[in-house]
Amino acid sequence: MPVGCDKKLGSAVKDDKCGVCGGDGSTCKTVEGFFDERNLTPGYHNIIRLPVGATSIRIEEMRPTTNSLAIKNASDFYYLNGNYQIQVIDKDLEIGGTLFEYDNHKSRGGDSFEKLIAKGPTNEELTIALLFQSGNKDSAIKYEFSVPLEQDTPYMYRPGEWSSCSVTCGKGVQTRTPYCVETESGGRVADKMCDENNATKPESERDCETVDCEPEWFQGEWEPCSETCGSTGSQYRVVYCHSVFADGKRITVDDTNCTKERPPVQQSCNRFACPEWQAGPWSACSEKCGDAFQYRSVTCRSEKEGEEGKLLPAEACGELTIEDKRNCNLGPCEGLMFVMSEWNLCQKCNDTEETRNVTCKDKTGRAYPPEKCLNENATEIPIDTRSCATPPPCIYEWHSSEWSKCSAECGHGHQNRRVVCAIHELGDLTVVDESHCNMDTKPSITKNCTNEEKCNGTYYTGPWTQCTAECGGGTQTRMIVCLNYDKKPVPEWCDETVKPPEEQECNTHECPSSCLSILFYSSS
């Protein structure tokens, strides 16, 4: 008697493609495609990535080959047919949380179809790969699996076509450009859509082997030139005959095996005129009379053909070989004399020197260096500095800032101010140590204050008077006063609307009847 997925005898309920017992297949989506790459090199090639939660997995070859299917995890650890070690018998394998049925053609000998079938779901990401063996023309593998809708893979990479081998002989490289497509429509989209959905990207480069190359000359890189300019620069390189095999291996062979003319191992280089210093015109003499100087611009310029006159860094020309400064004299200086200003007298405390301006001028007032005025009548430059004739006294005084606001918003508080010892000179106030001022005359830095701008009075109540009646209802009163912070009466400071009551009823209970009788008889 059959047992359904609901574990009931006689039940025909089955798991749907999503792995849901009795489901209708609406909770997952089927992904299917073909891996039909051509010109594969021997080795491993990724076919498709199975995400976590994949169900109804079926991978099968569409034509017989000697290739093998392989399974690895996200860390490239192979569970099946890894490291070129092939499983040679049909076997059920527990991989990624599900049982894979492996149908291996090796168990029957010769070429056949390989397939992998698993119910799922997988509990880790797996990659189905192909171990391509030499002797096979190409591959044709169909894959199909389902993924939960919440884990749907809306985008996947297409591998693209391999380019031709980069070389016609020896070992080269083939490239291709994988591109991202929408799984459902097959339309091409930006690669970032696949990357954001963790789609497996096929390899974009692989080695390719063609045929053995004919012996040819190997030409190394030219060594640096022996000179940077001039007529003797030379450079060398390595040249030898070698042979390159299809697998990329190279061997050196005798030069006689190379049929073409041997390339040169030496060539001339940097053979052009070296840069040189070039000078501009001399400037005018720096003085109208007496000893002076002339200057000119000296720059390093290129003499290379096509770059004549190009400005170069000074290092390119080396040590400066032409002068850029020289002496000059337009004749002796006449009619010059020293002109002195008035002495700038000492004005500040601690000033020790007086100064004045001393200049050498001609009759027109033009200034010259002081030494131009030296002659037999003026053998020395007049002094421009001397000691103070009358040093000004130092007068230190106390200076006070404005008082701060009263610390109390209402009532008694205090005020502060800054008091410093300073000297007042030429409009400037310079603060000094307090020891320079008379401490006995130092102004106070704090004082008491009273602030009534935000004051309010407070009601104070006296005791209630004795009730005017012992029963039957009487009244009693009390004194209410408004006082300030010093407990002085200030009736205008208090708010009448919050004033406590001055009178209240009392002894409102009824009087006893005996008392009423006594009152009655006494009144009659």
From TrEMBL:
Keyword RNA-binding: no
Domain ADAMTS/ADAMTS-like Spacer: 30-148
Primary location recorded for the protein, binned into one broad class: secreted
Entry GO terms, CC: basement membrane
Superkingdom as given in the UniProt entry: Eukaryota
Regions that span the bilayer: none
Any Pfam family hit: TSP1_ADAMTS
Subcellular localization: Secreted, Extracellular space, Extracellular matrix, Basement membrane
Keywords, sorted A to Z: Basement membrane, Extracellular matrix, Repeat, Secreted, Signal
GO biological process, one term: proteolysis
SUPFAM superfamilies documented for this protein: TSP-1 type 1 repeat
Molecular function (Gene Ontology), one example: metalloendopeptidase activity
Protein name: ADAMTS/ADAMTS-like Spacer 1 domain-containing protein
UniProt-listed InterPro entries: ADAMTS_ADAMTS-like (IPR050439), ADAMTS_spacer1 (IPR010294), TSP1_rpt (IPR000884), TSP1_rpt_sf (IPR036383)
